């Protein structure tokens, strides 16, 4: 099988059930989810290097679910019977967030992305996830999508934030606080 097909040379790409321009809002959304998945792959490596097995396993599962998210956004027409992202996935993220947050110090100030290598990787994931979420919101204004994808991405960015802080705790590295701010969280 050849990797190149030449079918996209005119600026279009295939989606499930049709073809669209490569800059279509749907392609932008699932393409950014694909980009996020690549950064999560880097975070998996960083988790493995730091010996954080539980987070490594969570991130690997997230990679599969991100692929599912992109798949759910790639249908030309709404097809609920084939969607893969479910409310259960969102609930599991919430459980992970709650568990990770228990070990984190109280949050008093805004924090800057930084600290350990794993934390830095997770902050990159968080910001790319937020962009994927924004693009998915834009897409949902023009076509029907699986609404669980939007919820999943919203919760996933929260997971990345809390996980980045937990990675710093595990590494014994403090979060980098934004020093030009007073205590904003109580």
Task: Describe the 3D structure.
There is one protein chain. This protein is mainly α and 186 residues long. It has one domain (14-75, 82-177): Hypothetical Protein Ta1238, Chain: A (Up-down Bundle), CATH 1.20.1200. The chain is built from 5 helices and 4 strands, in the order E-E-H-H-H-E-H-H-E. The strands form 2 sheets. Strands 1-2 form a two-stranded antiparallel sheet. It has a two-stranded antiparallel ribbon with strand order 3-4. Helix 1 (25-49) packs antiparallel against helix 2 (53-73) and helix 4 runs antiparallel to helix 5. The radius of gyration is 18 Å and the shape is elongated.
Write the layout of secondary structure elements.
Elements: E1 12-15, E2 18-21, H1 25-49, H2 53-73, H3 87-102, E3 111-112, H4 117-140, H5 147-171, E4 176-177
Helix pairs in contact: 1-2, 1-4, 3-5, 4-5
CATH topology: Hypothetical Protein Ta1238, Chain: A
The domain tally reads 1
CATH architecture: Up-down Bundle
**Strand-pairing-aware structural class:** mainly alpha
């Amino acid at each position: 099988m050849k990797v190149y097909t030449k079918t996209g040379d005119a600026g279009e790409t295939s989606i499930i059930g049709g073809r669209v321009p490569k800059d279509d809002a749907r392609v932008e959304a699932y393409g950014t989810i694909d980009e996020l998945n690549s950064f999560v792959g880097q975070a998996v490596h960083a988790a493995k290097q730091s010996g954080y097995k539980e987070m490594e396993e969570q991130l690997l599962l997230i990679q599969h679910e991100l692929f599912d998210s992109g798949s759910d956004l790639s249908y030309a027409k709404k097809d609920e019977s084939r969607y893969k992202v479910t409310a259960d996935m969102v609930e599991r993220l919430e459980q992970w967030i709650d568990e990770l947050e228990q070990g984190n110090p109280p949050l008093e100030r805004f924090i800057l992305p930084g600290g350990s290598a794993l934390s830095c990787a997770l902050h990159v994931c968080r910001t790319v996830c937020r962009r994927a979420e924004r693009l998915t919101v834009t897409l949902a204004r023009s076509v029907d999508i699986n609404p669980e994808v939007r919820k999943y991405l919203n919760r996933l960015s929260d997971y990345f934030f809390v996980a980045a802080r937990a990675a710093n705790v595990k590494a014994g590295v403090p979060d980098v606080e934004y020093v030009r701010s007073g205590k904003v969280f109580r």
